[in-house]
Amino acid sequence: MEADNKSQKSPEESATTPPLPASNELEDAMAKNAKLLQERNDFEDKYKRALAEAENVRKRMLRLVEDAKLFGIQSFCKDLLEVADVLEKATESAPEDQLKEGVNPHFRHLFEGLKMTDAQLLKVFSKHSLHKIVPAIGDTFNPNIHEAVFTIPVSGENKPNTIAVIQKVGYSLHDRTLRPAYVGVFTA
């Protein structure tokens, strides 16, 4: 009877100790737990990557909006450059002898009106960060702001890769070259 008592547990012992699952059930539960942990880690990784991607998209959109604000007028400005060039050429080509006091007052008034229009246009350009790129003869050629339309062999004291002739001034919009200055360059 004593052997029977040992094999049988008291009601207190059987209530506190759960029955041990079979070895296969334990292995299955551990495998399922490992699989669930791996899935959780995968989802956490995907979540973090999605957050990072969303932040990158947000920054990219902010940059695009900022560029659109700065450079949205770029094509309009480019079209106005030809107007500025024509005004400048008109004022440069006026004969000096006709501009003297009393010689031709109508021509002189027309010339002064052109100069005022040109000055006002340049003021508007400056207000919107559109600035002239005016190279000087002898400056080093910079392909970012100059466009070489022809080359001239070096002669005398001139140095290669320097500006020989300025055909047309360039313009930049917010430090971005809108139109390069058209120049002739000395070459060796």
From TrEMBL:
Ranges of compositional bias, category Basic and acidic residues: 1-12
Pfam families: GrpE
GO cellular component: PAM complex, Tim23 associated import motor
Region (Disordered): 1-35
Domain of life (superkingdom): Eukaryota
Keyword Mitochondrion: yes
Alphabetized UniProt keyword annotations: Chaperone, Mitochondrion
GO biological process terms on file: protein folding; protein import into mitochondrial matrix
Matching InterPro entries: GrpE, GrpE_CC, GrpE_head
Record carries keyword Chaperone: yes
Location(s), subcellular: Mitochondrion matrix
Signal peptide start-end: none
Gene Ontology molecular function terms on file: adenyl-nucleotide exchange factor activity; protein homodimerization activity; protein-folding chaperone binding; unfolded protein binding
PANTHER family: GRPE PROTEIN, GRPE PROTEIN HOMOLOG, MITOCHONDRIAL
Record's function text: Essential component of the PAM complex, a complex required for the translocation of transit peptide-containing proteins from the inner membrane into the mitochondrial matrix in an ATP-dependent manner.
Family under the similarity heading: Belongs to the GrpE family.
Protein name from the UniProt record: GrpE protein homolog
Organism of origin: Echinococcus granulosus
